[in-house]
Amino acid sequence: MNEPACATCRVRCGSPLHESIILTTFSDFGLAEPILAALAGEGYETPTPIQTQAIPLVLEGRDLLGIAQTGTGKTAAFSLPILDRFSRDRKARQPRGCRALILSPTRELTSQIADNIRIYGRNLRLSTQVVFGGMPINRQIRQLERGVDILVATPGRLLDLIDRRALSLADVEVLVLDEADQMLDLGFIHALRRIAKLVPRERQSLFFSATMPKSIAGLAEEYLDNPARVAVQPAATTAERVAQQVIFVSSGQKQRLLAQVLQDGAVSRALVFTRTKHGADKVVKHLERDGVPAAAIHGNKSQGQRERALNDFRQGRCKVLIATDIAARGIDVDGVSHVINFELPNVPESYVHRIGRTARAGADGAALSFCNMEERAYLRDIQRTTRQEIPVMPLPPGFTPEPPPEAPIPKAGKSGKTMKGLSQGKPGGHRKGARPGTGSGAPASRGGAPRNGAPGRPARQQRREQRPAAY
Q: Which CATH class for the 16-231 domain?
């Protein structure tokens, strides 16, 4: 596309309608009045940057590739135009069919998307249904018999319903992939390719994600037709309002350090991440032994267990939730004061999604990462991907320091934010004059750090622990 960048969308959208328009409220989009009334009832007045740039393009019927940080309002960016379109172009529901299909990687995120759509469309006579694994499939079959307007689903359960002839995608007008990069991480690529063959070729396709790896770019080229690309932040950047720090600690001291950190009065609600399901359960067991109530959420938990744990965390009955990356993008809980990486992720983009669980809706937040000797290469990859150096927090008294790395790790400077209530000494920040993108962890071996899971663990066991449950 060679058109000049649109003054409103800041992308080459080619639309003469956007040349001099400045959108400041949802009413400026020209959305249907019932939708505006629902937004006003929720107190939503000013659209976020991703909404400002994406909604006009989606309303025009363009295919779209949207890149924005977690927690910036991507769900409304695609759901509001869909609701507006269906409210103006009403059609009879086809038995076992749907007009819009929204795919997401996890059960929690699927439920969250459907809940938001129901809120935005509560004044419209449109039906929204959600299907995912872990729930009785016969009940879902009955719910789809008369057809629905909007279906939100995980790929695995969607194909199960199709195989049982309980669902047809022949009437899909809009296809949405939310968190598309996470779907590829979880191995849904074959399911996505099969689904793409079942929906009509003449459709509107929307891809949304917080990161933009090369695999997603390739997938977009395959399924999107001359798409507009909207990126409100550079790919894989972390939220500016999150105070990030890393602390170097041996594996054997991590559990004791976690218990001590969680007892700090500044930690009002903490989300702790591990790499594996077994590791999450192990952390919960140790915390409870130390007198810190906690719950775990991961793919091996039943749907009832996951919903209870997340609801207790959301309602404040449990202030510590242990999660794996598979649940990271479906946890939308206000008031998470701290994200703690008990184990650094072996995929740098996962770090962005993890710490995006705090500092939501304009609030401040803190992210603390525990890094042992073997994880220093992961830290280097994270800093290179996010193009920033993470300040170092010293170990509290009573802990044995890790041996120094072969190459210097960046120390906290005098600028930037500091973990509230947890930092020692002067506030940390980015080193003045540091060149973005320079990794600072210990140099990795020739092949780099192991990418399958915890360093030193048998590859077969790593794959088995990280394999997602049926979604």
A: alpha beta
